[in-house]
Design brief:
It contains 13 helices and two strands; from the N terminus they run αααααααααααββαα. The protein has helices spanning 6-12, 15-18, 40-60, 66-78, 91-95, 101-109, 112-119, 124-131, 138-141, 147-160, 169-175, 190-208, 211-220; strands at residues 176-179, 182-185. A two-stranded antiparallel sheet has the order 1-2. The longest helix has 21 residues, at 40-60. The protein starts with 5 loop residues before the first helix and ends with a helix. 35% of the residues are buried.
Amino acid sequence: TIELDDIAIKLIDQPELQRLRRIRQTSLAFVVYPGANHTRFSHALGTYYLAEKIGNRLVREGVITDDELNVLKVSSLLHDVGQFPFSHAIESFYIKKGLGNKDLREMVLRGPLTDVLNESGLDSRKVRDLLNGESLLTSVIDGDVDVDRMDYLIRDSTHTGIQLGRIDLDRLILTIMYRDNGITIQDKGIISLENFYLSRLHMYQAVYYHKTILGYELFLT
């Protein structure tokens, strides 16, 4: 169950977020794994949920403020707003033309979404800074162990039927610490962290770099 605040609802109602319903999370993986029809939209919601979960803990510990939590939540919801059709499958085509998905995301965030954020009392510049790696909170969404990867490992594993992406999510969230000097983890969470990295490796081998999927992506490009 994912509870959305007023700002999240306003953003989700925008066409820039709604288009994510039509972009598959794992692009052409459904060719090999027919169940892999989940979307970037559901992934954005899952990332938002995890960011809020971690953010609330950081607020309780006095690491971040409520305002920073709001920026973190909104950034997690918008982190994939610049995805191309077919997701990463055709990204290399556009990169050769000097346009990556981060560039597209920047264009979108400087467009109509800016008004939505500003009207909601959020500084759109702070959101862009976080997503562009210029904030101390960037590592929560884009780091060695981030909510983006936490969500897609479990989500992709579930929809492909591959059991290699299973991770001890609650334990990992409980023991990981995001601080000014980077990410640390308590000793009691080391096994969960190792499992996270191994799961990611195995999902790349079994799904993301599957030879047939890569072949279809090259054909599409």
